[in-house]
Amino acid sequence: MRFILTFTACLLALATPAVAEVPRLVGSLGQQLGASAPEAYLRYVGTPYFWKLQPVLGASIASTGSGWVGAGSAVTWRAPNSGLFARASLMAGVHRKGAGPDLGGPVLFRSAIDLGKSDSKVREYGVGADHRSSGGLYKPNPGLNTAYLFMSVPLR
Fold first, then answer.
1. What is the pTM of this model?
2. Among 31, 74, 93, 138, which has the highest number of CB atoms less than 10 A from its own CB?
3. CATH number for 47
4. Helix or strand holding residue 147 (H, E)
5. 3 state DSSP class of 18
6. 66 and 36 in contact (C-beta within 8 Å)?
7. What is the tens place of the pLDDT at every residue in 5-43?
8. Complete DSSP assignment for 85-125
9. How many domains, in total, are found in the chain?
10. The domain containing residue 122 runs over which residues?
11. Which of 24, 20, 109 is nearest to 72 (CA)?
């Protein structure tokens, strides 16, 4: 968790001007690590609302019936003239256990990092990883990690 927060702070400092970002829908398919459950994840990433922070809404469902819905902020850093980018996000949300692992309680935080490339039609493709935990609200606080592939499309 500390790594994601530090990385997010670094991205905020290095991020390109906010006007470069457009609202987009991000879909991903991944694998919950440790729980061995496939997961589908859908996010909306909006235009920057303050400095370089973008609003993010997300929802995921795993094959175990566990689910998560939340909201937060993201920041995107784009390498000049290459299409390469990194996006870090932090969201708070609610978790439904289903037949998945016990994560301590219903309120969970989800931090993520996406690394990818934009194509000529402004679609994005890449890989990502996220971590969900209660941030110490509940004991025990086992957490859950997911690795995924994603694609996004602009909404404009």
1. 0.85
2. 74
3. 2.40.160.20
4. strand 144-154
5. helix
6. no
7. 565 555 555 544 434 689 999 999 999 998 889 999 999
8. EEEEEEEEEEEE-TTS---SSSEEEEEEEEEEEE-TTS-EE
9. 1
10. 2-154
11. 109
